[in-house]
Amino acid sequence: MGFLLNNRVGHLLIAIMLFVAVVAVLLLIAKVADGLRGKARMPAVIAVFAGPALLMLAVGLIYPFIRTVWMSFMDARSQNFIGFDNYVTALTADASVIAFRNTFLWVILTPLLSTTIGLVYAVLIDQSRLEKAAKALLFLPMAISFVGAGIIWRFVYDYKGAGQDQIGVINALLNSVGLAPVRFLQDAPGNTIFLILVLVWIEAGFAMVILSAAIKAVPVDIIEAARLDGANSWELFRNITVPSIRPSLVVVLTTISIATLKIFDITRTMTGAQFDTQVLANQMYDQSFVFGNNGLGSAMAVFIFLLVVPLVVFNVRQMAKNREVRG
Amino acid sequence: MTASSITEADEADRAMGGGADRSAAATLKGALTNRIGSAVAIVIAVLWTVPTFGLFLSSLRPESDIKGSGWWTFFSDPALTLDNYRQVLGGSSSTNLSQYFTNSLVIAVPSTLLPLSLAVMAAYAFSVLEWRGRNLVFVGVFTLQIVPLQMALIPLLRFFNDTDAGSVLLFLPLWLAHSIFALPLAIFLLHNFMSEVPRDLIEAARIDGAGHVTVFLRIMLPLMLPAIASFAIFQFLWVWNDLLVGLTFSGGNRIIQPLTAALAAMTGDRGQDWHLLTAGAFVSIVIPLVVFFSLQRYFVRGLLAGSVKG
């Protein structure tokens, strides 16, 4: 079987064979365990069904979590305990202050813009003859990687010096109306906004799908009643539709916020975090794997964790509430 | 999430515009239908499509054209070539992305199969088997979704290095890392779907003398197939599109790097070589697009069930 290790497809075949073998063995052991008599039977069955997944979580997630918290109080090479120094550095160093500021901008703007656009679009195309196709158009970027999206938009934002032919769409448009070309990705602070728009482009489709499903679930009779009372379409939208889909709106907003906090690929692909576009998740990566400062990198990871927790808690409670409402 | 898989499917269908029931929004839209509304919708649709279209068209233009003029000049001066694709799929080794394409496949397939099967088994333990502490452990697993990937990267990487996990099977660290990160959400979602399966069905089989393995394979798995398919698609796309895990656990080793990492490196090194970047980017999004268009229904169903992970 050694020859399989010489090429990639061989690795894939080995993986699949290993996988089949592991699952078969697990089920076989489960069968044997299920045939046991007496008290040992159920614990054995449970251990075989849940054990492998729980073991992986313990080794791969719980232990690393504790270790990262521990490392955040240690120096760059995790040898000496230095208390809260890394956290102080993370909050005061110039580069980190920029990363915090930018991350804050990302987390405020991305959910608001993508949810607004998704909602407006969902309402506008609802029940139109082309609804299915129209939705696929907005939804398509969801399938594309952040790296792919980064390249797509770097091309859109491309800048050539004044007087040259612009190959980026936006600068070409600016040119055609007589305006000077803009260095979208290099000039701070606007460049962070232009990076944020890329994530808005990706997340709007997600917002649209969820909100569209919610809009279609608003009972018709409520709308009809309001209409009979003389409400116009704006009042209908504001007083009936938005309150009815509020739970979904909240879930969409928080879900996008959580994803945005961890955004890393877009900044990396489009500006390499230069020109004051650094964000927390990318700085965590740089500190840990480029500069080899495990302490500071871990402190950054803890910050991301601390910022995510309240959003997740809120999101989960909201989802539970939604379920109760839906029955 | 409480809906059965049948209504989930309907929901997914409706969410993508199927079904013709006159809903609240229809009435609303009747009032809103005006030129401004349609214009806004068209503007959004155009803004969301043009960037991808521009990239695709550019990837088919000759190198000198791409670098010298915008893709829209194609319409007045059409010239197409497959040279760019030849270069990224079969050119010299520095611009050849085909091995990374294979890497992404080799990474993504096991990273989808492994967490799914372990999660289905765990979900069975959490929903059908009855044991003390079950709910407590399940809540614990659910809570792990909070942990951002970033919290686990450094220690997990050290663990793989210390144990030499990648020395024989080069891709093993990547498979395991992706699987671990997928488990909390997979277990949670599959458990929710499994709890919907009527207890009587299982009880009846148990009374007939069926063991747990039989119930799991003969009753649960077939009923769970739609949910499994939804999550499989999600996980596959997630792994295929991932950069963070691929970059970290390939440790800069080009032999096992996924396509996303190679592309990200290319944007750094050859940021102005648009003929390579456009074709390369398109190669990387072809698989997700095919998956997306052929399995959109499952994809949306997964989304509505809450398959959004971090």
Written overview of the protein:
The complex is a heterodimer of chains A (327) and B (310). Chain A is mainly alpha-helical and 327 residues long. Chain A has two domains: 2-71; 86-326, MetI-like fold (Orthogonal Bundle), CATH 1.10.3720. Chain A is 73% helix and 0% strand. Chain A contains 14 helices and no strands. In chain A, helix 3 (85-92) packs across helix 4 and helix 3 (85-92) packs across helix 14 (294-326). The radius of gyration of chain A is 26 Å and the shape is globular. The model of chain A has no long low-confidence stretch (mean pLDDT 88). Chain B is mainly alpha-helical. Chain B folds into two domains: 23-90, no CATH class; 98-304, MetI-like fold (Orthogonal Bundle). Chain B has 15 helices and no strands. In chain B, helix 11 (212-241) packs across helix 15 and helix 13 packs antiparallel against helix 14 (274-294). The radius of gyration of chain B is 24 Å and the shape is globular. The two termini of chain B are 19 Å apart. At the A-B interface, helix 1, helix 2, helix 4, helix 5 and helix 6 of A face helix 1, helix 2, helix 3, helix 4 and helix 6 of B.
Oligomer: heterodimer
Number of domains of chain A: 2
Radius of gyration of chain B: 24 Å
CA(first)-CA(last) distance of chain B: 19 Å
- CATH topology label of the largest domain in chain B: MetI-like fold
Identify the CATH homologous superfamily of the largest domain in chain A.
MetI-like
CATH level 4 superfamily of the largest domain in chain B: MetI-like
The computed structural class of chain B is: mainly alpha
* Biggest sheet character of chain B: none
Number of strands of chain A: 0
CATH class bucket of the largest domain in chain B:
Mainly Alpha
